[in-house]
Amino acid sequence: MNKEIAIRIENLSKEYVKGVKVLDNISFDIMKGDIVGYLGPNGSGKTTTIKILTNLLTPTSGKAFINGIDATKNPKKALCSVGALIEVPGIYDYLTPNDLLAYFGKIRGMDKKKIGEIISEVLTKVKLQDWQYKKIGSFSTGMQRRLAIANSILHEPEILILDEPVIGLDPKGIKDIRDMIKQFQKDGITTLLSSHLMHEVSATCDKVIFLDGSKILDYATVDEIKSRMVAKSITIRFIDTVTPELLAQINAMEQVSNIDRKNGDVIIGFDGRDETSHNILAQLMKQGNKIASFAPEEANLEDFYVSVMSDEKGVSS
Predict the structure, then answer these.
(1) Residue whose C-alpha is closest to residue 40's, from 225, 258, 268, 193
(2) How many other CB atoms are found less than 10 A from the CB of residue 274?
(3) Which of 73, 192, 217, 303 has its CB surrounded by the most CB atoms within 10 Å?
């Protein structure tokens, strides 16, 4: 196996009820150093995949490798280089972060002399260094999630497997987790991030795996996926007052398919081609309009996912 592959899923299937497959012969590789988003709706098989990787479930068929080691046959060796956060972790209100991490450090067989030093380091990484000796019961949801991630990196793993790490967090908490994951990448850590939050995955990950109906629908870089999407609308903000005459003038343009107003802006539909966008802007300028901004809609993962789902199910979008 290529030494640059951190995680390999090979023809993996899982049936909970005979004949009903949660995972249906899926395969993918995750390269070392990548942050890969694992996207799909609830029940699509994301958590099942992660539980097989971390030896919490046994596959019906297929294999799961971590750093070339079969995690289903030799889980202890395979998982020694993995840190994982699966579902919402239990909270021990009466403990401090120092107590909790010291306990798990001992369970992992870490050097007792170094545990204290490592605890301080990981708490600094997750921005909880000032809370090392305070009761966890006083922590916000975001702080508790950061502490759970601190626990997952306590033994300095090469690979992180995170299942919905930002669920229930406010925007600041989500950004904190995103910043941490990106910093971990700079430290050489590979991350598999399971989520159903398209925007957050787009902002955090290099690559994305789309999963639904027990099958992988696509696997590509975020930039590749965005390049496949075509913007279908342009938002225009004018400096002068938008008059009914101006709206009629825009609507009469051959390249404009529809027109709408939102928060003072004019939103027009078009065929999505760059050349068409250029021609519309040129006509507006030629007509003497003062334009403050001219912004074609930015393609996003949610639109792509909906389009892939529609194609898969034979529904026209």
Answers:
(1) 193
(2) 10
(3) 192
Give the Cα-Cα-Cα angle 90, 93, 96 (nearest 5 degrees). Answer: 105
Please, which residues bridge with residue 294 across strands?
A: 236
Among residues 188, 182, 179, 183, the alpha carbon closest in space to that of 159 is found at: 188
pLDDT in tens, 205-256: 999 999 988 899 899 998 888 777 777 899 999 999 999 999 999 999 999 9
Go through 94-105 and write b for each residue having 16 or more CB atoms within 10 A of its CB, e for each that does not. Answer: ebbbbbbbbebb
Q: How far apart are CA 53 and CA 36, in angstroms?
A: 15
**Nearby residues of 230 by Cβ (< 8 Å), 6 or more positions away:** 272, 273, 299
* Residues 303 and 246 sit within 8 Å (Cβ to Cβ): no
Residue type, 183: Q
**pTM over the 0.85 mark:** no
Helix (H, G, I), strand (E, B) or coil at 30: strand
Q: Cβ neighbours of residue 20 under 8 Å, at least 6 residues apart?
A: none
Contact 269, 262 (CB under 8 A): no
Q: What is the DSSP string of 43-87?
A: TSSHHHHHHHHTTSS--SEEEEEETTEETTT-HHHHHTTEEEE-S
Mean pLDDT value across the chain: 89
Give the pLDDT confidence score for residue 315 in this predicted structure: 41
Q: How far apart are CA 124 and CA 135, in angstroms?
A: 17
Distance CA 37, CA 60 (A): 24
- Among 121, 216, 124, 204, smallest CA distance to 162 is for 204
**Spatial distance between the Cα atoms of 75 and 26, rounded to a whole number of angstroms:** 20
Give tens-digit pLDDT for 220-232: 998 888 777 777 8
The Cα 126–Cα 123 span in angstroms is: 5
